[in-house]
Amino acid sequence: MQVKIRYSDFTTLTRQVSVEEPIAEARDIYRLGCFLLAKEKLVSRPLRLIGLGVSGLGEATVRQLTLL
To answer: Which residues of the chain have pLDDT under 50?
Structure first.
């Protein structure tokens, strides 16, 4: 997953992180994007653009739960 930001002077920065477990929910993508923004302290001045990107998408796997 990556986050791309562009400042008002058109300086553009991209940061990315890989995760071991697949992400299937939009809220998890959002949270990971917020994590990258906070970790790198990227929101330190006004922004023109924030973009989130994901790669390596695949079929969601379904786990069968056992009944007791």
So the answer is: none
